[in-house]
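Our collaborator T.R. sent over the components below with a one-line note: 'Predict the complex.' Nothing else. No constraints on interfaces, no templates requested, no preferences about which chain binds where. So this is a plain run: every listed entity goes in together, and whatever single assembly comes back becomes the starting point for the next discussion.
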Amino acid sequence: MDEILPPAALERLTRAHLPALLARMPKAELHIHIEGSLEPELIFALARRNDVALPYASEQALRAAYAFTDLQSFLDIYYAGASVLLREADFFDMAMAYFRRAAADGVIHAELFFDPQTHTARGVPMRAVIEGLARAQAEAEATLGLSSALILCFLRHLDEADAIATLEAALPWRERFIGVGLDSSERGHPPEKFARVFARCRALGLRPVAHAGEEGPPAYIRTALDELRVQRIDHGVRCVDDPDLVRTLAQSRVPLTVCPLSNIKLRVFARMEDHVLPELLRAGLCVTVNSDDPAYFGGYLLDNYRALFAAHPSLGPRDAWRLAANSFEASFAEPATKTRWIQALAESVDAIASR
Ligand SMILES: [Zn+2]
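Returned assembly:
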């Protein structure tokens, strides 16, 4: 799309306006694993409803286990939490809880990842997963004015044959999802492992995205672009180790869906002050802010914006506006819809400047 120009009223905003701007500007969220929005309270409520035994005595004991050392230590607990999801109503309740939190943070559009293999491997029917999420999407649109789309993710620690079988099992609901992604343990599972299933997905008109360059090397970002032909990179922060790649990403404007709190919690960066997002923004990349697995990483979308801006005094209102504008540019919505959202963003800047 054409370059999005900042509204004139942005010039009148200072860092003092940041709390209002971050909270009230409309934004899209493009990197949220819906299973990662399961709060301990809901995990226990669903465990009771479905008579599932959990290896934790209480909500507090579960929350206390969220002391992750890396991606794998998180994934082990994440899969335990997802074990309470059995019926269509469980997927509906989980997604509605997320949509309510997101709407309170100013999210007007969300593109949700879901992991069918996490559920079908436990005997949960694909129908329960997709229909439950789809019913919540319709409810969120009607009651919260929040639009959304689904992106089916393949678990990369499993083999490609499993991914192909999962795609086939989901095809009766082809109209329910707009794209496919690649998540779970990155190291040792390069994108090219899934070249054939992604080729089939592209032929079906599905939008391809992939996690790359979170814990894995910049080479994984390159192969996600060249061999999977992804239209967005999820995370992608390790591109900073490859200046040529940074230039390529800036020129192509292939978006990165960056997740600041996740990166600190999983020790991709030691401190928020060390996060490279400001550097990538200055280099002209289409970076966006997202929450990844908000129930596990200490915050939803607005918490991510706040933590990032608190740790980086160099970031100002123009950067906040740019990140929100990028989130709309990077979305898979129709161009006319994006234009409407960018206009709503400009109006929110005007409203804050004229108070
Ligand atoms: Zn993720």
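Summary for T.R.: The longest strand covers residues 147-155.
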